[in-house]
Automatic annotation (TrEMBL):
Name by which UniProt lists this protein: Membrane protein
Swiss-Prot/TrEMBL keywords: Membrane, Transmembrane, Transmembrane helix
InterPro entries, per database record: DUF4267
Transmembrane regions: 6-28, 64-88, 108-126
Organism: Mycobacterium terramassiliense
Length: 128
């Protein structure tokens, strides 16, 4: 495994672990997780908790997809999946901005995540 591949795998693993953690936080501490996302829903409204639970489960599954590909050693496939998944933090940033959320979270958290995902994609797709 080249240094490029190793760094790509480490970044992919960190991203996978982070999104699993974030997903779990949406299940265990939805108010805190929503604040970290950048938009605070009214959790007193019926159904609001359900949407946050859905987000949590989907985040956990997304992280597990990456881990499964890592275990399989599918370097290039992880790169392509990371590239496709970059739409998630980009859309999250747009959602936060469109709904009056914190610009710092939209740009810093979601934009930063998208940037790290693109670097990870490049490392994995360019590795031999």
């Amino acid at each position: 495994m080249t240094i490029t591949t190793t760094v790509g795998y480490v970044l992919a693993g960190i991203l996978a672990a982070a999104i699993i953690f974030i997903g779990a936080r949406f299940l265990v501490a939805p108010r805190v997780a929503a604040a970290g996302y950048g938009v605070l829903p009214d959790l007193d409204q019926p159904g609001a908790g359900a949407y946050l639970s859905v987000k949590g489960i989907r985040d956990i599954a997304t992280g597990l997809f990456v881990i499964i590909l890592m275990i399989a050693g599918a370097t290039h496939l992880i790169g392509w999946v990371m590239l496709a998944a970059t739409i998630i933090p980009l859309a999250d940033a747009a959602i936060v901005l469109r709904h009056g959320g914190a610009k710092s979270i939209a740009r810093g958290v979601h934009g930063g995540t998208a940037a790290v995902m693109l670097v990870t994609t490049a490392l994995l797709l360019l590795s031999s």
